[in-house]
Amino acid sequence: MSAINEIASLWMEGTMRTLDAFRTGFGATMDDPPPATRSRVVYESGLVRLRHYEARGAGVKHRVPLLLIYSLIKRPFILDLQPGRSVIEFLVRQGFEVYLIDWIPPRPADKWRGFDAYVNTDIANAVRAIQTHADIEQVSIIGYCFGALLGLIYSAIHSGNVKNLVTLTIPLDTSTRQLPIEILTAAMTSRSARTIVQMYGNAPAWMLYSFFNTLAPAYHLIDKFVGAYRGSSRPGHIDTFRLFEQWLHSDVPLAGRIFLETGEMWRDNSLMKGTMKVGDAIADLKRIVSPLLNVIGDLDEIVNPLSSEPLPGLVSSADKQNLHYPTGHMGAAISSDSLKRLWPQITNWLGAHDD
Hints:
CATH architecture: 3-Layer(aba) Sandwich
Order of helices and strands: HHEEEEEHEHEHEHHHHHHHEEEHEHH
CATH superfamily: Alpha/Beta hydrolase fold, catalytic domain
Helix content: 40-55%
Radius of gyration: 20 Å
CATH topology: Rossmann fold
Strand content: 15-25%
Shape: globular
CATH class: Alpha Beta
Number of strands: 12
Structural class: alpha/beta
Largest sheet: 8 strands, mixed
Number of domains: 1
């Protein structure tokens, strides 16, 4: 089968383009909704826009600032969805100075950007900006999904700058083949990936949306709308639902080179094996000595919990643990239960490691 046929078979390109146009016709927009928490941009360069959220808690103010690193393929406003349902709002009210990397979507000219550019330039520059802005030597990193992967790689190469590391729903061990996303990703050959980059430069947003959308059967989508209707009498429920829908459709392109490198990492399981090269360095997880909290969603339908579990055994940190919680992939960010029970555990852990 030719590479073009492989892509057509795997992605159903024509159908997905039609569905994407149909979706856009319902008024989807790339504009972020109004933020729930006040911030200001303190640094911008490359594809990084660094936002600072000032601690507003009435109690103790923690010394070590937090750097939030979210995924590259969707907008990060899911972490600050609305008042009362915002991870960032919760963190600043607990006395943490919070910085967020608000990734700038790659343009066609950015197709050359791989892990080296994102980790050793963009994240490295963001950390240096925080060190200057906060007059601090080390930061604590909280990474989510692909952002957790980037934060982990940065911590392996620049370990001296990381005080604490929190990884949420990190896709690490790519040898697991149970969830639909794992099976679909394994089916993507290197030739197909190269052809996509040759055709488009960057992996298109519509393709990434279609990829993840195939993981949700039609009856799940119908049930989602029925659930919104049934819950409409609850105060604010419809607003939350609409904001979440807006986030679901907030896909952005993935730079061509990191798209290819992610596929190589997935096929070779190179980060897990300690052989992944980023720039001139090997991302050796044994170099990580900072305390590690690895948060696993036991009901995660995107990142297999079995893929996340091995992480503590691969780092040299004396203080390291897995924290299991009964939530799905996005439930850790927006569910009221997680904000009441999971995030207090995370902030208690960070507070205990703030010295």
